[in-house]
Design a protein that fits this description.
Chains A, B, C, D, E: This is Magnesium transport protein CorA. The structure is a homopentamer. With about 350 residues, chain A is α+β, with helices and mostly antiparallel strands. Chain A has two domains: about 290 residues, CorA soluble domain-like (Beta Polymerase, domain 2, 2-Layer Sandwich), CATH 3.30.460; about 60 residues, Methane Monooxygenase Hydroxylase, Chain G, domain 1, CATH 1.20.58. Helix content of chain A is about 55%, strand content about 15%. In chain A, helix 7 runs antiparallel to helix 8. The mean pLDDT of chain A is about 85. Chains in contact: A-B, A-E, B-C, C-D, D-E.
């Protein structure tokens, strides 16, 4: 929860600044940012990793191939600014990159596309972290800006570029863009599977040993679903833009791939909705079960209590001190009373059994 | 539930692979896959059944007629790959066929249509299995890929082809495609009727002998409805594409048939929604009934208990050991007290009756 | 409910048949079907009633006027087949006529329109029966197929044709079609008024004497509303097609009439929704009332029980057999204890009154 | 409620009549209808009031100005018929005027517009009456038909016409129509404010002295909101037609005014929705409060009862008649027992306090 | 709440007035209104502050630059009238400015745009005030009318104009308009953060020490969300108009900025919806927790009470006065009974423990 708390609070510090002000909004980090550059075409590949932006940036841009610049840690505002100025990006784009509380979206700036997504990472106990990934797709360059520096889900893509596996080296930035988005959407399934595992666990717990913590787990998972929907829902609309292929940066050949991720996104949403419905049903079931169980206990106890009421009354009667109480004098009075009480108890048990109250 | 559990978990093993990687995602099976081929035109019919794809595949494709290739068991990835390469299908199509967690959908690849549906099969106790059926409709061929190998709902269609019943032999792949989809949608009605039967059962149980298991049955049926909606809902959109007939593979003559299945799909959805509403009403009714019944019992017991309270108090009074208690000395004291207690009890019963508490 | 049960179950017997198979799906009936024909134009009128279709059917079709053929009882599949072949209707149309579980819909077949509606009939206790009415509207003929044979709501229309009241004799099949649909939609208001009456009854019952059967009545009415919505909701869309007048069979002059029935349909839906909202509110109110009333009783009883607790304790104290208990020896001990107990009881009553618990 | 009851029941008496039949459907009234005519242009004004339609109607129509004919009491079907025939209105229009259960709507008949609205009037105790107002807007005439005869909300408009205040005398029927609709929509705010006042009252009652009648008041207000939505919701769509100005009867100059009423209608809907949300929240709060309060009482009583249980047991022990009970013989036994009981009680009170149960 | 109460009640006082009547509707204020004027272009800047509108207004309008006239306090209707007449605004615009219960909206009057928004201001305890801000954007002037006079959120914009920071001095009224709307939408985040803080607080309270006031706090926050949605929801639609840039007053260069605020507005709505979902979950959790806790206590008490029932019965038995009760004569009878009672109690405790009732 502490993360959420922070997440719900940061934005207003920028109130009153002119648009395009580069102020980092997000979790504070002490670690240094990292820049890595991969430039490739069908035949050649060059890789660099550097902590700061110096003068040699232009040299690595391959005019006929693709240059992918990946920045880990947007809290280092200077790197973002340097890159922004080098490529002449719009100030609002730069602002959105460092302001890491954006919703997923896509914006078409003519010469380049600006895409914002959320990179989800499963954490202990059904929790997941949500970091912003901003992407700028130009004709021969692609920039990715990651909020965090704890690694990403792109290693497989890098490997494919390096080993020239698949068509990735032969195609342009739009295919690279697809590969990266695909990697992110694929990683959503891990989060979903983690969540699904917990939901199935809680469901079993619900059947076998429902307790107070079951309620809290259901409630916790429902909250996770709320946050997950928020991260994923707007993505569908954004990817539908890519699928339509309205921008000249998107070749027709990759449209079918974007349709594929669109499909995956819809599947993610579908699963999220199913989880939500399942959790709602589980909450109902939990509440009814608990109430049923409670009722059963109370009924049992009340019924048992009921059996003792007339017995206690009877022994009270023969504890009275009236001078003239013939039964007390009778030699078998005590035994007779026990007989009466036993018959009475059995009769009541039979009656309650018949009524299905016991 | 174990199936569901698996169903919720498989997808991520493919993370990081390039698009078009043929990895089977779904239930593991030990049985061998089966291929069956039916090639026909208005006058001729040829049938073959083979366990592997060899060289003689091309020969059976009838350029003027229709060739229907049915694959049972997509876990044998090699068969899918061989067919895919033979017909030059897009890698993403091949990938979706072996990845059996797709949503129902239709995709137009120009030269062929790719259709994914769910084949539902009623199982014991209102449960149903859900297997993926992928279909590729080309100008003179139609391929169906079934996830499972336990038989399908197409026997009636095969019989019609063999006996040349109806117009099926005279028409092209679009009519065959219609016949197959129709068979699947028809089979949904069996699942619905099975479910409906259970719902009516549970409703009767609810009226006659509601118990804890009633709650679990309602809850179970609600869960079934959630999964059923998920399998059926996207189908409507897909079939609406076929009804519109935007592809050149669909002749105008079959449009009216597609409108018919569209209608059926809407009816399926309608019934699913009605079931959902009925189950929601049943849950409400169950909870209110149980709570009502519980309340009645508690009220009865409390009211009866209330009658004994003053009586027990009274016998307590005359069990006291005060030296000077005139009533105790009175010869008829004991009988008088009984009279008082009987009158008091009857008065209380009358009072509670009047108040409608008893 | 038995009807519903059947209604939820029939469809699958047709699985595997080719499209256009004429198999009656619906309630079984022993009675013979009836055919009645009315042929008219502005000046002439001819009426016939016959139990079977023979050869003289063509002769009665009036090429310049309107021929209305009404079939009561579609379980006689042969009649439907004969008419279908005579007019060359599409096999799917014939199939939908005898398969009486269709949703309301309209289909434009170019030369004729095919309309399916539900004919509702109030029955005892807020229940209503729902029978399928299929209608085929051609340039100079109109066919109606009724599921049942217990009479219909068209008598007023027939009377208007016979007496040439209104414009009906002067206008074509589209106006006749309007008149028939209007009669059906008008009859929905009877069902609604019947339901409304019951809802108002239950509401009064809820205020005056809520009991267990109140809950069941509300629940029953809610179920009726679910089925009513299902019969009426799709009609709106169908009639909106007629209002738009896209078919050449619909003259501009009748469009304003179709707008009128569209209006009525919307009113029907509106009323159904209002009923649903009212019933939802009534269920909430019932549950809260019952729970409130229960709570009041339990509180009363518990509070009264509370008064006896210290009294019973006190008389217990003086029932002890200690050798040395000075109070027991005191001559006024017994009376003093009574005084104490009375004061204590009154004090507790006052306390509970003040707390508003009594 | 009696009004509602009637309102829910009238419609079916017209079943089977041909379209355009003039049968009054609505509350029966004994009072005579009233006709009032105002004819004006920028310079002249003529006013008449008459109980019946005679021959002089045409003379008062001002071909260059505006003639507003207002009929109060549509139960006098003859007046409606006479006017309808004079202006040659469509029979369906006439029918809708006397059938006072229409939804708000607008219909464009080319030469004139037909508008139906609901005139709401606050009544005692948050109730409101809902009467139908039909309006026909022609090129130089405007007819209004009011269901009731208890006065209307148009006095201010009449006054403006008489005193030539604002632009009303200079503009045509579309501006008059606007002024009348505006007056009606403005009157909705009175109803809303009345309702709002009651909602705020009930909210205060809920905080200070919630009781059974609070529940009934909330439930009553919810029902009012259901009826209010039904009267207002369809109006938005109708006024949006006027705002779009598709008819030649609407000049461009008045479009901005219609946008203004559209705005007001949206505000009305907005407020209705807010009320609905507030009432839903209040119902939740009421139920939780009542249940909380009940629980507190029951807990208190049970805890107190718990203290007496061991005490009563103890005094029971020393009321036994065993021969050999050393404590009874001890001189200070009685006092010692009191000491034990007091310590025990205090201990239990402390324990329950610590557990926050007391 | 008192503010809300007023807010729900004012509107009807204007019923019957002609359109364009300038009557202030809103909170009454004693303070004088204030007018401040800033006229600037890229090179020059002039500022004035005046309490009344005199003759020198025209002189300050800079035909080539931008003149921003800000009015604080629209209760001074004369100022609004003077400005309206000077610029020839439509009477309905003037009316909406002084009638401070408008929904957010945008209206295009050709020569100028009229925009209404709500200025939210956090107040003590999660409350916020909501004041109307009306804005009129012309080709070279921009007027803002604030309902209140307690300062605004525009100081940062003023500072940017004065210091010529950013592009604001170089661009026209559309950019100024953007800057002002941006400042308002930014201020919504403060309100949201304030609310979020309270929601997190209440959530912690819910986990640690849930009590009656928790319920009231949740209910209060839900009410705040209802009002917040009402203020923000319509804004999205209005800003989407600006983003589309349909008016000639909006240059293409600023469209990207409007897209930015559109984004922010969607984020605001998103957060509001998330809050709503969280609060709904919290209410559920609260109710279940309270009910769970209550049940635990009642169960504990009932179970403990159950242990004393047989014990009290037993001591009652040996308190009876039968002549012939052998146990009483037995020398160890008393001790034996104690032994029996202790064993019985322990047995019951063990039984209840096993059943998980204790």
């Amino acid at each position: 929860m502490p993360t959420r708390q922070k997440f719900l609070k940061k934005r207003s510090i920028k109130s009153g600044m002119p648009p395009g002000s580069l102020v980092h909004i997000g979790e504070e980090r002490a670690e240094a940012a990292q820049i890595s550059i991969i430039a490739y075409d069908a035949t050649a590949l060059e890789e660099q990793s550097l902590p700061k932006i110096g003068k040699h940036l232009p040299s690595c841009i391959n005019p006929t191939g693709v240059t992918w610049i990946n920045v880990e840690g947007v809290h280092d505002v200077e790197i973002v600014r340097a890159l922004g100025e080098h490529f002449s990006f719009h100030p609002l784009v730069m602002e959105d990159i460092v302001n890491t509380v954006q919703r997923p979206k896509i914006e078409d700036y003519g010469e380049y596309l600006f895409i914002v997504m959320r990179m989800l990472r499963p954490q202990h106990e059904a929790d997941f972290s949500s970091e912003q990934l901003s992407m700028i797709v130009g004709p021969n360059y692609l920039l990715t800006f990651q909020e965090g520096i704890k690694g990403d889900v792109f290693d497989a893509v890098r490997e494919r570029i390096r080993t020239s596996k698949g068509k990735i080296r032969a195609l342009g930035t739009d295919y690279l863009c697809y590969s990266l988005i695909d990697a992110i959407v694929d990683s959503y399934f891990s989060v979903l599977e983690e969540l699904g595992e917990h939901i199935v666990d809680v469901e079993e717990e619900l059947t076998l040993t429902p307790g107070r913590e079951t309620l809290h787990r259901i409630s916790y998972l429902k909250k996770e679903i709320i946050f997950l929907r928020r991260a994923v829902w707007p993505l569908r609309e954004a990817i539908s833009f890519l699928e339509r292929g309205d921008s000249h940066l998107l070749s027709d050949a990759t449209r079918v791939y974007y349709r594929d991720i669109y499909d995956h996104t819809v599947q993610v949403m579908d699963t999220v909705e199913t989880y939500r419905d399942l959790l709602a049903g589980m909450l109902d079931l939990y509440l009814s079960s608990v109430s049923n169980r409670m009722n059963e206990i109370m009924k049992f106890l009340t019924v048992v209590g009921m059996i003792f009421l007339p017995l206690t009354f009877l022994v009270g009667v023969y504890g009275m001190n009236f001078k003239n109480m013939p039964e007390l004098e009778w030699h078998y009075g005590y035994y007779a009373l026990w007989a009466v009480m036993i018959v009475l108890s059995l009769g009541m048990v039979a009656f309650f059994r018949k009524k299905k109250w016991l």
